From TrEMBL:
Gene3D superfamilies: 1.10.8.60, Homeodomain-like, P-loop containing nucleotide triphosphate hydrolases, PAS domain. Residues 119-146 form a coiled coil. Residues 153-383 form the Sigma-54 factor interaction domain. This is PAS domain S-box-containing protein.
Length: 463
């Protein structure tokens, strides 16, 4: 029984014989003249013969498409070749055999029957994994590409045109760029466009959102770590974003939220142009352009020691101050139509535009959320719209916000100290009362329900 194990010892000849006659492989030896000198029973049977019928016959008579003679010519082994014989696929290895430094023939070994199925299965699995790997690589590469070009920054207002022109100038250098502006003004778009206009465009563009990563993780995220740097560190270590961005650009978004100790580390990188991995032994030089963005007022943060002055000046080599939408309302019509086109494509809609009343509403609103708010409201409207044109009633949220803005409870702008807001409201009420009473102070005081002397005192303080 083949499956039983034997402890008997055998001579070398017997062992070789047993190996040749293995039922798991087809074995053939052909001499330099192409004559079959040895063929095992399995292979002969596979070809439809007995071994003794094939020995001393020329290989081309039996297997006309054989590649064994090729190996004789080249003297080079061929491994794992998959080819068809008698309508079956086999995995073949062909080895030149030497004796006393001279080739005396070629040995062909093929896996067949179950082994082939296994090998093919395995080969296919590897192929599939390779394909998957290639697609993940492509995806990763894609994710590391900057998405937007200068042309995709919509806006022809003077302020925007100036900034867009500046992109081309700045793209020629590798200087650090600081982009400031309110939330949703398009700072990230500028960062992408600067990278894409530069000669780094075919290299990585890596974005790091400094707020979304907990502070204690940010260092390893930016600079990476070596194997064994700390308990729980991955085997083989981890590349930091600076190294991933090598030759390209790193975009540090929300830089104003980086804590002071991290700011010091970043400053060092900007000065030395090298990073130190956590647990690393030597610094790694990095050639990376740094673009930082924030919607916070870094100058104010410097006054209160929340942002390092030295880092501020290192970052602020080139400054892009992206204006809020309320300061460039002439961009609203163009932005609206481009955003509608973009959203139509994404949502499979066919909206053609806004009616005039809606555009007027857009122009009278002050857009505290800037282009992002505009984009979101358009998306909501397109989802609900019954017509091809968007009407005022397609924007219920905007109507409410606008109402609040008109009532003076504007949600826009910065939060101001209460005493300033109260003072301003008081001044407005006094002027309104004086206006309504033709400057009759006694009457105005009555309307305001304050004593006349109080009114006089307050008027002195109003310039
Ligand atoms: N000028 C513009 N042209 C076209 N789309 C714009 C423009 N500005 C902003 N957007 C769009 O508005 C959205 C917000 O832009 P982005 O993320 O660049 O703003 P941000 O200033 O970086 O905001 P935050 O400070 O909140 O990170 C994005 O979907 C972007 O595509």
């Amino acid at each position: 029984m083949a499956n039983k194990i034997s402890n008997q010892s055998f001579t070398r000849e017997e062992l070789l014989q047993a190996m040749v006659e293995t039922p798991h492989e087809a074995i053939i030896f052909v001499d330099t003249g192409g004559i079959i000198r040895l063929i095992n029973e399995g292979y002969a049977e596979f070809l439809g013969y007995r071994p003794e019928q094939l020995v001393n016959r020329h290989i081309l008579e039996i297997v006309p498409q054989t590649q064994l003679l090729e190996v004789l010519k080249t003297g080079k082994p061929q491994y794992g070749d998959i080819w068809a014989i008698n309508g079956q696929r086999v995995v073949v290895t062909r080895l030149p055999i030497e004796k006393d430094g001279q080739i005396i023939g070629v040995l062909g070994r093929s896996m067949f029957r179950d082994e082939i199925a296994l090998a093919l299965d395995f080969a296919q699995k590897i192929k599939k994994l390779e394909e998957q790997l290639a697609s993940y690589r492509a995806e990763l590469d894609h994710a590391r590409r900057a998405k937007y070009e200068v042309d995709e920054i919509i806006g022809n207002s003077d302020k925007m045109l100036k900034l867009k022109n500046r992109i081309f100038k700045v793209a020629k250098t590798s200087s650090t760029v600081l982009i400031t502006g309110d939330s949703g003004t398009g700072k990230e778009l500028f960062a992408h466009a600067i990278h894409n206009a530069s000669n780094r465009r075919n290299r990585a563009f890596v974005r790091v959102n400094c707020t979304s990563i907990p502070m204690d993780l940010l260092e390893s995220e930016l600079f990476g770590y070596d194997e064994g740097a700390f308990t729980g560190a991955k085997r083989g270590g981890k590349l930091g974003k600076f190294e991933i961005a090598q030759g390209g650009t790193i975009f540090l978004d929300e830089i104003g939220d980086m804590d002071r100790s991290m700011q010091a580390k970043l400053l060092r990188v900007l000065q030395e142009k090298e990073i130190e991995r956590i647990g690393g032994t030597k610094p790694v030089p990095v050639d990376v352009r740094v673009i930082a963005a924030t919607n916070r007022n870094l100058e104010e943060m410097m006054q209160t020691n929340q942002f390092r002055e030295d880092l501020y000046y290192r970052l602020n080599v080139v400054l892009f101050q992206v204006p809020p939408l309320r300061e460039r309302k002439e961009d609203i019509p163009g932005l609206t139509s481009e955003l509608i086109k973009k959203l139509n494509k994404r949502l499979g809609a066919a909206i053609t535009g806004l009616n005039q009343e809606t555009m007027e509403m857009f122009l009278s609103y002050d857009w505290p959320g800037n282009v992002r708010e505009l984009e979101n409201l358009l998306e909501q409207a397109i989802n609900l719209a019954e017509n091809k044109i968007l009407y005022r009633f397609d924007f219920p949220v905007l109507n409410k916000r606008l109402q609040r803005q008109l009532e003076g409870h504007s949600v826009s702008g910065t939060v101001r100290p209460l005493h300033e807001v109260v003072k301003e409201a008081e001044k407005k009420a006094i002027l309104k009362a004086l206006n309504a009473t033709d400057n009759n102070k006694k009457e105005a005081a009555r309307l305001l329900e304050i004593h006349r002397s109080v009114l006089y005192r307050k008027l002195e303080r109003i310039d």
